């Protein structure tokens, strides 16, 4: 572990806003929050942790040349796009839109409960791609005390890039057009996990399961590379190629953790 270094990104230092209908945190510069020290990391450009009030959300808007994926934590997220996809996503669902030459979409809370999800963007390795849409599902049981690969590069082993459009029909990770692999786990108290990282960079984030909190982080607690992180905290990792990253749950509750292996 002495080879792995981390620069913590503490929750209270992130950009955040309460718009009433939307409560959000920004790990990287986004919208009105701009910080040149936190613009991107490798191909990773956006990590927003969003809570959207019932029957509200992001109206139809357009994107191009981004890989955009949503990781649903709680509630239901209704997706509609210009490719004709309409889908309601629930906990455990991962949605990935390869915007390519351009798409329009809306993302709204479905039903009578708020939706909590991570909105993540990465920079594609190839420009002017044909837009595509993918969904996958990963149960809590799969993620319990194990790293589950939920997103991986299109050319990675086990990635099925030809299954698309909304039926959660694909197995394995969703295919991203970026040198990025995303893992997720639900780590029990007292447990630890190893994950070999291709590197040279990585990013880790502890999901805010205990609720929206603008102050110092609390809730689930993990240890990584000699640092303690709590819910909402993250960290920039420098990892020599092939090194195992060790994450340990030091708290009294399950920690939901997202890990990015950034090869570029």
From TrEMBL:
Pfam families: Pirin. Residues 16-121 form the Pirin N-terminal domain. Belongs to the pirin family. PANTHER family: QUERCETIN 2,3-DIOXYGENASE. This is Unplaced genomic scaffold GYMLUscaffold_36, whole genome shotgun sequence. It comes from Collybiopsis luxurians FD-317 M1. The lineage of its organism: Eukaryota, Fungi, Dikarya, Basidiomycota, Agaricomycotina.
């Amino acid at each position: 572990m002495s080879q792995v270094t981390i620069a913590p990104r503490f929750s209270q230092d992130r950009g955040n806003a309460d718009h009433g209908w939307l409560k959000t945190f920004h790990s990287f510069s986004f919208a009105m929050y701009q910080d040149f020290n936190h613009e991107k990391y490798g191909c990773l450009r956006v990590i927003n942790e969003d809570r959207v009030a019932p029957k509200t959300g992001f109206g139809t808007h357009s994107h191009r040349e981004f890989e955009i994926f949503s990781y649903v934590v709680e509630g239901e997220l209704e997706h509609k796009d210009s490719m004709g996809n309409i889908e309601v996503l629930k906990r455990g669902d991962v949605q990935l839109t390869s915007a390519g030459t351009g798409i329009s979409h809306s993302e709204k809370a479905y039903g009578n409960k708020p939706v909590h999800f991570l909105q993540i963007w990465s920079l594609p390795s190839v420009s002017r791609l044909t837009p595509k849409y993918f969904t996958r599902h990963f149960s809590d049981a799969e993620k319990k005390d194990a790293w589950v690969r939920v997103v991986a590069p299109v050319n990675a082993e086990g990635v099925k890039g030809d299954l698309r459009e909304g039926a959660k029909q694909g197995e394995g990770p969703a295919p991203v057009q970026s040198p990025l692999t995303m893992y997720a786990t639900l780590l029990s108290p007292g447990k630890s996990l190893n994950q070999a990282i291709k590197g040279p960079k990585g990013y880790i984030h502890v999901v805010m399961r205990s609720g929206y909190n603008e102050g110092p982080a609390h809730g689930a607690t993990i240890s990584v590379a000699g640092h303690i992180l709590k819910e909402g905290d993250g960290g920039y990792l420098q990892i020599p190629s092939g090194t195992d990253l060790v994450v340990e749950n030091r708290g009294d509750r399950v920690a939901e953790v997202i890990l990015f292996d950034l090869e570029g």
